[in-house]
Amino acid sequence: MTTSTLGLLCGLLLTIAIVAGGFTGLLLAVVLGAGGYLIGGQIDGELDVRALARGRRG
Questions:
Q1: What pTM was computed for the model?
Q2: Residues 36, 1: contact at Cβ < 8 Å?
Q3: What distances in angstroms separate CA 41 from CA 7, 19, 27, 29, 33, one per listed residue?
Q4: What are phi and psi of 23, to 5 degrees?
Q5: Helix (H), strand (E) at residue 26
Q6: Which strand (E) or helix (H) includes residue 22?
Q7: How would you class 25 by CB atoms within 10 Å of its CB: exposed for 0-12, middle for 13-18, buried for 19 or more?
Q8: What is the number of structural domains in the chain?
Q9: Domain residues for 32?
Q10: Each residue of 7-50: pLDDT tens digit?
Q11: How far apart are CA 55 and CA 8, in angstroms?
């Protein structure tokens, strides 16, 4: 299991712990899961978050 996948799972589990249900909980799960995946990918070296944020300017 890569760190990015672990980050995704941690974000999703934290969301379940914080919000138990509803549409807002679903949106929060998606946002935190994506954030966890990006942080884990940055740590693993799979993703360059700075390059994603820079876009076409750099």
A1: 0.59
A2: no
A3: 8, 25, 21, 18, 12
A4: -65, -35
A5: helix 22-44
A6: helix 22-44
A7: middle
A8: 1
A9: 3-54
A10: 888 778 777 767 776 777 767 777 887 888 888 888 888 877 77
A11: 23
